[in-house]
Design a protein that fits this description.
It comes from Eiseniibacteriota bacterium. Keywords: 2Fe-2S, Iron, Iron-sulfur, Metal-binding. The protein is mainly beta and 115 residues long. The protein has one helix and eleven strands. The radius of gyration is 15 Å and the shape is globular. 25% of the residues are buried. The protein binds FE2/S2 (inorganic) cluster (FES). FE2/S2 (inorganic) cluster is lined by residues 44, 46-49, 63, 65-68.
Length: 115
């Protein structure tokens, strides 16, 4: 089961830098390119830098600490095919940007026990 979280308006997002949001304690980096928005895990798998503080190019973000890059669409790093960050679904409706995030197992279990 997935949940939807509002990031804000498409207009409010910067194209030159990432935006960090937190969902269930999990940091997510959001990047806008034109009329598209991408969301990936915000924690660099190398040493934990926030990718939302990274340098943004046409289709990837470069980690601000040691320069690994990650594709917005796939979460993959061109340096090593085994290194990647999670990718999250983004929905834009009525000018608002939403993340579709899987509900944590513990909460899904609580919800199902209530019905
Ligand atoms: S922490 Fe990201 S490349 Fe080192």
């Amino acid at each position: 089961m997935s949940e939807r979280f509002c990031v804000g308006s498409l207009e409010s997002l910067s194209e030159s830098e990432g935006t960090q949001v937190e969902v269930h304690g999990c940091p997510i980096a959001v990047f806008k390119k034109g009329q598209e928005v991408f969301a990936i895990g915000d924690t660099c798998p190398h040493m934990g830098a926030p990718l939302s503080d990274g340098f943004v190019d046409e289709q990837s973000v470069v980690c601000p600490w040691h320069g690994w890059s990650f594709d917005f669409k796939t979460g993959e790093s061109p340096f090593d095919e085994d290194v990647r960050v999670p990718v999250y679904q983004v929905v834009i409706e009525g000018g608002q940007v939403y993340l579709e995030v899987e509900q944590p197992a513990t909460e899904a279990k609580l919800d199902s026990s209530e019905s």
